[in-house]
Specification:
The protein has 115 residues and is α+β, with helices and mostly antiparallel strands. The chain has 1 helix and 8 strands, in the order αββββββββ. The strands form 2 sheets. It has a 4-stranded mixed β-sheet with strand order 2-1-3-6, with no helix packed on it. Strands 5-4-7-8 form a 4-stranded antiparallel β-sheet, with no helix packed on it. The radius of gyration is 15 Å and the shape is globular. It binds copper (II) ion. Copper (II) ion binds next to loops.
Amino acid sequence: MLRMTILLAGLLALAGGIAPASASSTAKPPATAAHRMHVIVIDQMQYGPMPTDVRAGDIIEWTNHDILEHSATARDGHFDVDLKPGTSGRITATAGTFAFFCKFHPTMTGTVVVK
Ligand SMILES: [Cu+2]
């Protein structure tokens, strides 16, 4: 039971940590109900889990939690989002599979599928 309580507290802490990002997004142009936002968190020189079920028109946002500058740069040159420490950047997704990397640390890679 104690373990369950600790797990629940952890989940609540996690939800609390995410809340500020969604709160600040209210100041930005609102996404319509049909278009959602997907956040990829960069931490410790890695892109976090890739979003799934991304549709054309959705917003993809990268948030840099590191103290180093990163980028989300499309392999095909389609986009190049610079991410200074502690900042976010976003694109509007178009259909297709796109691979991206960090131009400052090319071993950082990710791929998002947009339907
Ligand atoms: Cu980087």
